């Protein structure tokens, strides 16, 4: 599935240990759960901060 030009920035990700950001121009069917995967990653990274208010 080709990603619309105005939505490509929504697919941006960075890889640990690599310099730069990457964007998908084609959405593979394997990426259909990226929202849940991203949420799980953020929960893992910030698990000790969940429930606290940060400024």
From TrEMBL:
InterPro entries: DNA/RNA_pol_sf, Rev_trsase/Diguanyl_cyclase, RNA-dir_DNA_polymerase. SUPFAM superfamilies: DNA/RNA polymerases. It comes from the Eukaryota. This is PREDICTED: retrotransposon unclassified. It comes from Prunus dulcis.
């Amino acid at each position: 599935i080709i990603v619309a030009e105005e939505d490509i920035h929504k697919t941006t990700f960075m890889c640990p240990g690599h310099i730069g950001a990457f964007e998908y121009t084609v959405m593979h069917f394997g990426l259909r759960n990226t929202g849940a995967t991203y949420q799980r990653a953020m929960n893992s990274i910030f698990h000790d901060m969940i429930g606290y208010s940060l400024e």
